From TrEMBL:
This is PenR. Coiled coil: none annotated. It holds the Pfam family MarR. PANTHER family: CONSERVED PROTEIN, HTH-TYPE TRANSCRIPTIONAL REGULATOR RV0880. Residues 1-143 form the HTH marR-type domain. SMART domains: HTH_MARR. GO terms for molecular function: DNA-binding transcription factor activity. Transmembrane segments: none annotated. PROSITE patterns: HTH_MARR_2. The gene is penR.
């Protein structure tokens, strides 16, 4: 299999077109109105903890692309708001793990429900072939996200 940056007459994956389509979709998707107005970084930290489980601050710094002092301040605010908790790391009593709370997890669930509600009428306007195309791409998109997460560790 070959990958091309420009149009491919063989119908193989055009990485430039794929990247542009994802960027265009993300531009719309990340700006969907939500019930809870929280910063992108706050939502990203909560999402990371919801998916990955408890993490050390140093691990969160790597995934969130924010300075350690900035992340420490954010975690302090999230803890004050009841969205995360700090617990000693059972593997190393000197270290602390950041855990998402049920309230923090609920924010992600509500955001997902809000986004689904906004997407539903748009998806209804797609042709059956377009909906089938998206459905067929879901396993590959899921795998790409997994590969990206693994590469970032």
């Amino acid at each position: 299999m070959t990958f091309h940056h420009r149009a491919d007459p063989e119908g193989d994956l055009n990485v430039d077109e794929f990247t542009r389509a994802i960027e265009n979709f993300n531009r719309y998707y990340i700006r969907l109105p939500t019930v809870q107005k929280l910063s992108f970084t706050t939502l990203s930290v909560l999402d990371t903890l919801a998916v990955s489980g408890p993490l050390r601050l140093t691990e969160l710094v790597k995934t969130e692309q924010i300075s350690q002092p900035g992340l420490t301040q954010l975690v302090t605010r999230l803890e004050r708001d009841g969205l995360v908790e700090r617990h000693p790391d059972p593997a190393d009593g000197r270290a602390v793990l950041i855990h998402i709370t049920e309230a923090g997890r609920k924010i992600g669930q509500v955001r997902h429900e809000d986004r689904s509600r906004h997407m539903l009428p748009l998806i209804a306007q797609l042709t059956p072939a377009e909906r089938q195309g998206i459905a067929a791409a879901l396993p590959a998109l899921t795998r790409l996200a997994e590969l990206g997460t693994e590469a970032g560790r």
